[in-house]
Design goal:
Elements: H1 3-12, E1 38-41, E2 45-50, E3 53-58, H2 85-88, E4 92-100, E5 103-110, E6 124-131, E7 136-143, E8 178-183, E9 189-194, E10 200-203, E11 210-212, E12 215-221, E13 227-234, E14 244-248, E15 260-276, E16 283-285, E17 296-306, E18 312-316, E19 320-325, E20 330-335, H3 340-352, E21 366-367, H4 375-387, E22 394-397, H5 417-429, E23 433-439, E24 442-443, H6 455-462, E25 477-479, E26 482-485, H7 494-508, E27 514-517, H8 560-563, H9 565-585, H10 638-641, H11 645-660, E28 668-670, E29 682-684, H12 692-707, E30 713-714, E31 716-717, H13 726-736, E32 743-744, H14 759-774, H15 776-789, E33 794-795, H16 797-800, E34 814-816, E35 820-822, E36 832-835, E37 846-848, E38 863-866, E39 874-877, E40 880-885, H17 891-895, E41 899-904, E42 911-917, E43 929-936, E44 939-946, E45 954-960, E46 969-971, E47 974-975, E48 980-983, E49 988-991, E50 1007-1011
Parallel strand pairs: 21-22, 21-32, 22-23, 23-27, 27-28, 28-29, 29-30, 31-32, 41-45
Antiparallel strand pairs: 1-2, 2-3, 4-5, 5-6, 6-7, 7-20, 8-9, 9-10, 11-12, 12-19, 13-15, 14-18, 15-16, 15-17, 17-20, 18-19, 24-26, 25-26, 33-34, 34-35, 35-39, 36-38, 37-39, 40-41, 42-43, 43-44, 44-50, 45-49, 46-47, 46-50, 48-49
Helix pairs in contact: 7-11, 13-14
């Protein structure tokens, strides 16, 4: 299937995906960005002045929706009248160039009159080029010194985001396959070349450097039809394309397609393909779409990381990538690869940090929803999963469990501590686990109500751990509990306070991990809207909750009307009536659209309304977020570090869990992330929608987070927003079974979508879980290597088969590790998939998981694979040895079961594999075991090293692709006379019931299994 036709199909299948933006359409006249509205109150009533109109409220106050409406701003990339810095600015000239032991330094001076297009030009910059390792080059450009024009310029602190480790300068550091060159013709520019190919991989020639206190722009030329990946976080195809703008601004915006959402990862992988002349060996860069299956190709990949936490844009244009930042510095790191696997390892190892190793139980299935009402309902869900024999490892609670949505509390009426402790005791006795949500904002009590006390706030306030306004008063926004304050992670007291808070809650409810939400950081009003308003602390957010009048959930997946015509018709009619009622209440404005435009005042920074307008999904930077002028204890404004809040709360939570649950690896899933967050946490894809489109995009999301060093990734299976249906949930439960983080989660008031709700979904889930749970040793081994070497767990086909340019854009299939190929059904009504099988041209083999027979395919061919509802195509790569254990109900049961091996032989009759074992939970395991498997010449060798003792016996060995029935089978020279069978049709050799000859444990002694 053509790479881009699948996206076009999936988007055409839904009319909802084009209307996901929540950007406000008009300004709220008279709305102050510092307060939002003024409120006076009495014990029973309050008067709010909004947009000049006085309104009287009861003490059951709801903040009006207008408080989260900002001025209407037009992104510069959509403004045809916007100033173009490249044509207006003079650039810089390099001087005082000096060579250092491992690079170059220079001074850059403005080459002409200041242009001041979107800020104040900084006249003098410093350049530092540093060949840091044998695979990493750093290029830094920042103000040379602080003067009146840049005194407020913030350069990202090493304390917040550590610099990539310098490491030990070795003799091969200068052997890096990268070369830096610069020129002053006509102004300063630089290039980075790959020495082995002569290819220019970064090229600022033909453009000018623009460096102002609120605007930085630099341009790098790119070849035609380039292949860039990464640049997250967003819902988009894996291959980014050459007509796309990536915005880097953490946003609580749901999951709009193609726009910025929760996290910020300014990193891209660039892969370039070369056609190789087999006679001369000459390599020619492939820039077009005419690729022949008979030609020979090689690829070279490199990575680029822009270490900057400000709001940014990267414009991917047909001939270049243009970076624009609202501040900070140019802090570029180039990784030479030359393969994707090596780039990813170089980026993680020593640069942003290696992913956290996860506890074994976290790879079990997780169930959650917004709307579980009490412990009884939660236990009913757990018991119903057990009754249907659908494995459930972890049960979660959303904000429902809290007392008035306040962090670290339980509602005494619905989730009281005593019954909760009893439930958790039963849960843990069954080998299962519990994870609650923790939000990022802290309720601030009403000072006029003596009974409205909240010790979490009091403790934090006493220790000065909350963000302030510029005048030193406390910044008070609004989130789920009402008026809230926000942790200031720059305060030295913040992590100890957060630790005390988590420990206090864990003492009452012994959870096993933490789910961090709303960490962009989100606020439901613009500015410090709670200032002077605390006596009317709101009891409801300024928008309708799902299920309330005007916000009833009527959405269904694509094609729902084809299988549920009556219900679909009723939903469509009700949705239309709801929309009509909303339109009648708020008729569209007929006024001409007016946009707020911020002007440049030399020497002054306007952080709330910067002169350059990035293409932020929320529009104004303060909408649905803490305002840019919120101030940290060290004087740094939120404008400069907004993208780091989610990163820092994950760090704080990781440090806290090390004390709360000592010696065990912290299990944390967070929403907002930054480069390096994977050191502490995993991530889920956020508030997706119950549509096939989002199931399709989940693959690209997961692959991007593999590049970002966050392999513990999954999405809300069956969809979060809207109602799922049987077909979508059937397909999605099977797809997510092959993602590392496997959780079903949906929105308040939508139809229940637990795996047991539909009979076919229950069966499909058990089928996929059977495969997943049997392969947990394989997945756990993949994570061991990810956490120690930076390798990926989920992989794009193009990464594992780097010399096949036809795979460059494929994102409707993926690999789990090097050995499993997943080809899911991703569209409504489909009963087959078109799958490609990479490596066939080089003699590779693929085996069907279910039949264990080899697949017949030609190079580059789309093979039609039957996939009726309830079946997900899975294939084993020839040459792989996969360790397995029994697929039982919990991961603890699985770990204590017998071992099996599947060896899928290559065309040459060979195969290899590895198995990593430890206790599954310790931060520093007291003992480990690594087992190597090698197949060749009719023998399978297993040899172990390490002190971990695993006493589970070996039960079965299955060999795929054995050419003929063997005359005899032996284990360490002793004949195996029973349990041996051979299928001449499938060419599968099975050896069963080996427990009696491995009673000390499958890996207690090295062994060789031979067949002749």
């Amino acid at each position: 299937m053509a790479p881009f036709s699948f996206r076009q199909f999936i988007l055409a299948a839904t009319s909802l995906v084009s209307a996901q933006s929540t950007t406000s359409s008009s300004p709220a006249d008279g709305l102050s960005v510092t307060s939002g509205y003024s409120v006076t109150s009495s014990p029973t009533v309050g008067t709010a002045t909004v947009n000049g109109t006085a309104t009287t409220y009861s003490v059951q106050f709801t903040v009006p929706a207008s408080v989260d409406v900002g001025p209407n701003v037009l992104p510069n990339i959509k403004d045809q009248q916007a100033k173009q810095a490249q044509s207006l600015c003079p650039g810089y000239t390099a001087s005082d160039v000096k060579h250092t032991a491992n690079g170059v330094t220079a001074t850059l001076n403005l080459a002409g009159d200041a242009c001041n297009v979107y800020g104040t030009d900084i006249e003098t910059l410093s350049l530092a080029v540093d060949f840091q390792t044998a695979h990493r080059l750093a290029v830094s450009i920042q103000p040379a010194y602080l003067d009146s024009s840049n005194m407020s310029q913030y350069i990202l602190s090493e304390e917040l985001v550590p610099f990539p480790e310098q490491g030990v300068v070795q003799s091969d550091t200068q052997d890096i396959d990268l070369q830096f060159s610069w020129s002053n013709d006509p102004s300063f520019s630089f290039t980075v070349l790959r020495k082995s190919t002569g290819d220019v991989i970064f090229d600022t020639r033909g453009s000018v450097l623009v460096y102002e206190n609120q605007f930085i722009e630099f341009v790098s030329q790119l070849p035609e039809n380039y292949n860039l990946y990464g640049m997250g976080e967003r819902i988009h195809d894996l291959r980014l394309g050459n007509n796309f703008t990536a915005t880097f601004y953490a946003a609580d915006a749901g999951d709009p397609i193609d726009q910025n959402i929760y996290g910020t990862h300014p990193f891209y992988l660039d892969t370039r393909y070369y056609e190789v002349d087999e006679t001369t060996g000459e390599k020619t860069l492939v820039t077009g779409q005419n690729i022949s299956a008979t030609n020979t190709y090689e690829s070279y990949s490199h990575g680029v990381f822009q270490r900057n936490a400000h709001g940014m844009e990267a414009l991917m244009l047909p001939t270049n990538i243009t970076w624009r930042s609202l501040g900070g510095s140019i802090d570029l790191y180039f990784f030479d690869g030359p393969s994707q696997a090596e780039v990813t390892k170089q980026y993680q190892f020593g640069a942003i940090g290696l992913p956290a190793m996860q506890q074994y139980f976290t790879f079990g299935f997780h169930q959650c929803r917004w709307g579980y009402k009490n412990w009884t309902e939660l236990e009913d869900v757990v018991n119903t999963y057990r009754a249907f024999d659908i494995p459930l490892e972890n049960i979660w609670t959303d904000i429902d469990y809290m007392f008035q949505y306040r962090d670290f509390t339980n509602d005494p009426n619905t989730f009281p501590y005593g019954p909760g402790q009893d439930f958790l005791a039963r849960l843990k006795a069954a080998g299962q686990h519990y994870i609650p949500i923790v939000d990022s904002a802290i309720y601030i009590p009403n000072p006029n109500n003596a009974s409205d006390n909240y010790s979490i706030y009091t403790d934090g306030n006493d220790h000065g751990v909350f963000l302030n306004n510029p005048d030193g008063s406390q910044y008070i926004g609004e989130v789920w509990p009402g008026y809230t304050v926000f942790p200031d992670w720059h305060s030295n007291e913040s992590v100890p306070w957060w630790t005390r808070s988590l420990k206090g809650h864990h003492d009452n409810i012994a959870w096993d991990g933490i789910w961090i939400d709303m960490s962009e950081v989100s606020s439901f009003c613009i500015g410090s809207c709670g200032t002077h308003n605390l006596s009317l602390n709101p009891v409801h957010p300024p928008f309708g909750l799902p299920g309330e009048v005007g916000s009833v959930v009527y959405g269904y997946p694509e094609g729902f009307n084809l299988t549920n015509a009556t219900e679909a018709a009723a939903a469509t009619s009700s949705a239309a009536a709801q929309a009509s009622s909303a339109n009648a209440a708020s008729p569209p404005s007929t006024a001409t659209t007016a946009y707020f435009v911020s002007t440049v005042t030399p020497g002054v920074r306007n952080v709330n309304q910067p002169p350059y307008v990035i293409n932020n999904v929320q529009g104004d930077l303060a909408v649905h977020a803490v305002s840019p002028n919120a101030t940290h204890v060290d004087g740094i404004e939120e404008y400069d570090v907004h993208n780091l809040f989610g990163h820092q709360i994950l760090n704080a939570t990781y440090q806290a869990l090390l004390e709360v649950i000592p010696d065990k690896r912290p299990f944390i899933i967070g929403r907002s992330t930054f480069a390096g967050s994977g050191k502490w946490a995993g991530h889920w894809g956020g508030d997706n929608t119950s549509l096939f489109a989002y199931m399709y995009f989940s693959i690209a999301q997961a692959l991007n987070f593999a590049l970002f060093g966050i392999p513990m990734f999954g999405v809300d299976t069956c969809g979060f927003n809207g109602n799922s249906d049987e077909e979508l949930c059937n397909r999605w439960m099977q797809l997510s079974a092959f993602f590392p983080f496997y959780r079903n989660h949906n929105v308040l008031s939508a139809n229940s979508q637990e795996a047991y709700v539909w009979a076919s979904v229950a069966e499909a889930s058990k089928t996929a879980m059977q495969i997943r749970y049997s392969l947990l040793p394989y997945m756990y081994t993949l994570f061991y290597y990810a956490s120690t070497t930076g390798s990926t767990v989920m992989r794009a086909l193009a990464w594992e088969f780097p010399n096949d340019p036809t795979l460059a854009a494929i994102d409707n299939q993926f690999l789990l590790g090097p050995s499993l190929l997943i080809a899911p059904v991703l569209g409504q009504g489909q009963t087959s998939v078109q799958a490609v099988f990479p490596g066939i041209a080089q003699g590779g083999l693929w085996y069907d998981w279910y039949t264990q027979e080899p697949i017949t395919a030609k190079p580059g061919e789309n093979v039609t694979i039957s996939a009726p509802l309830g079946h997900i195509p899975v294939f084993i790569r020839g040459g792989a040895v996969l360790p397995q254990q029994e697929a039982l109900y919990t991961t603890a049961e699985c770990r204590n079961s017998s071992w099996s091996l599947i060896a899928a032989l290559s065309a040459q009759g060979t195969a290899t594999g590895q198995l990593y074992i430890d206790d599954g939970e310790s931060i520093v395991p007291p003992a480990t075991l690594l087992v190597d498997f090698t197949v060749g010449n009719g023998s399978l060798w297993a040899s172990a090293r390490g002190a971990y003792v695993d006493t589970n016996s070996l039960a079965n060995v299955t060999l795929l692709g054995v050419a003929s029935q063997p005359a005899n089978v032996s284990l360490n020279g002793q004949a195996v006379s029973t349990g041996v069978s051979y299928n001449e049709t499938s060419r599968v050799l099975s050896i069963r019931d080996l427990q009696s000859v491995t009673t000390k444990g499958a890996w207690a002694e090295d062994w060789v299994l031979s067949w002749a």
